[in-house]
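go over this record:
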Amino acid sequence: MSRPKPLAKKVARMLRVMDRAVTEWTLPVIGVEKGRVLRRLIADHAPTRALEVGSLFGYSALLIAASLPRGESSRAWSRMPTSRSSSAGTPPRRGWATGCASWWVMPSACSPMLRGPVDFMLIDAKKEDYLDYLRAVEPRLIRGAVVVADNTGMYRRDVKPYLAHVRGDGRYQSREHDFGFDCMEVSVVRG
C-alpha cells in the first residue's frame, strides 16, 4: 500500500477536534482507524472523482477532500462537509456539491444531477439503502473504482443485500476490513 500524503496541519487539527467531539457526544463517524484505511485507498488508487453518500458530521468528507490530489473533484451530499472543509482550510474541490443523497444519487434523479465518471465512492447513509445507492451510481463507476461501504459489521443484517451483490457479482473484487467494533467493505470494480 502507498503511503498517504500528510494532511495539512489545519485539517489534522480539525479532525482531532471532531474526534474529541464525537467521543463526547457519541456520534458515529469514520474515525481514526477507518480514516487510515480510506487515506491508504486514496493513495493507492489515486481517484480523481470522489463521491460520498451520507455525511453526519462532515468528518469523512473532510478526510476525503484533504486526501485527494489538489484540483480533483469530490462530491459530498450534505451541507455540513462544505462548512467543515472551509473551516479547516480545505476549500471544496472543483465539483463539490451539496444536497440530499437521495435527490442526487437515487435512480430517478441520478442522470441529471450526477455527471461524469466516479472512481471513489463512500457509502455511509441509510443502511438498508446501500444497494440502491450503489446501483444508482454503478453506470458511472469506472474500471478500478473503489467503493467503500461503512458499518457493514454493526448493521450486517441491514446491508446483507449490498454485501451479497458486491461479493457475488463478478464485477467487483471485494474485501471486508474488520476493526473489531465494526467493519467496512471495500470493493474494487474489475471492469
Summary: Residues 23 and 29 are 10 Å apart (CA to CA).
